[in-house]
């Protein structure tokens, strides 16, 4: 592999980062689900940092109303978002290999889609996809980085085999409507997800061991301790497969 390391000089200068961490990034495969408001900074910072392979999943097309926060799609109204993201990465860092999937994450494809990745970054705009990724990643033992945003607020959580999971936080979905969002809020939370991803892949630093809630209107950050729920079917190991009926309506687990 002929990689231009000069590109990464400013991160190589960090004494505890160095070439060893860079090599880990270059040999990593990351799945990013959603190339929207959160996906934009995640895609920007993971590709520019030199993550070797990115799989970008998005079935949606770029609309004018997206550009206020989905900044990687500039000038590409009408493009598929995964394709647009790939084109963005090819200009920012051509050394990154990008694979695109123009499909929705569903119970029937989620296990195949996450397979073979070192890490999954969750950037969708709905509970159902978050539950699917949470359950599938825990069954497969793949670390998952959750992020979500609302107006000036956001949250992030890193989910590993030894942490509580997203269902410990939210056992089921609550009614959603399209939220208003300040674009920079997506930038803050997506950047936190990107930093967590770099730490998972390199083994550096301490991962978020709580739910991080950020209110950018009052500029308050909250680290909220989440405990494993005894009745969580993911954490107690009872759920071993993806069953479609667990992702209907409230997404509560009804079948093991
Ligand atoms: Zn759990």
Your description of this structure?
- Residues 8-233 form the THIF-type NAD/FAD binding fold domain.
- One of its GO terms (cellular component) is cytosol.
- With 256 residues, the protein is an alpha/beta fold.
- The protein has one domain (5-247): NAD(P)-binding Rossmann-like Domain (Rossmann fold), CATH 3.40.50.
- The chain contains eight helices and eight strands; from the N terminus they run ααβαβαβαβαββααββ.
- It has helices at 9-12, 18-26, 39-49, 81-92, 110-114, 127-140, 166-169, 183-202; strands at 29-33, 53-57, 97-101, 119-122, 144-150, 153-159, 211-215, 220-224.
- Strand 5 and strand 6 form a beta hairpin.
- The longest helix has 20 residues, at 183-202.
- It is globular and about 50 Å long.
- It binds zinc ion (ZN).
Brief account:
The protein has 256 residues and is of the alpha/beta class.
What's the structural blueprint in terms of helices and strands?
Blueprint: H1 9-12, H2 18-26, E1 29-33, H3 39-49, E2 53-57, H4 81-92, E3 97-101, H5 110-114, E4 119-122, H6 127-140, E5 144-150, E6 153-159, H7 166-169, H8 183-202, E7 211-215, E8 220-224
Parallel strand pairs: 1-2, 1-4, 2-3, 4-5
Antiparallel strand pairs: 5-6, 6-7, 7-8
Helix pairs in contact: 3-4, 3-8
Bound molecules: zinc ion.
Which features does this protein show?
256 residues, alpha/beta, Rossmann fold, 8-stranded mixed sheet, 8 strands, globular, binds zinc ion
| Amino- and carboxy-terminal Cα gap | 44 Å
Let me know the largest β-sheet: 8 strands, mixed
Rounded to the nearest angstrom, the radius of gyration is: 18 Å
Shape label: globular
CATH architecture: 3-Layer(aba) Sandwich
Structural class: alpha/beta
Q: What's the level 1 CATH class?
A: Alpha Beta
Q: What is the CATH H-level superfamily?
A: NAD(P)-binding Rossmann-like Domain
Q: Give helix and strand order, one letter per element, not per position.
A: HHEHEHEHEHEEHHEE
**Whole-number average pLDDT?**
97
Number of helices: 8
In the CATH scheme, what's the topology name? Rossmann fold
Task: Say which molecules are bound, naming each kind only once.
Answer: zinc ion
Runs in which pLDDT lies below 50 for 5 or more consecutive residues are none
Protein name: Dinucleotide-utilizing enzymes involved in molybdopterin and thiamine biosynthesis family 2
Pfam families: ThiF
Family: Belongs to the HesA/MoeB/ThiF family.
GO cellular component, one term: cytosol
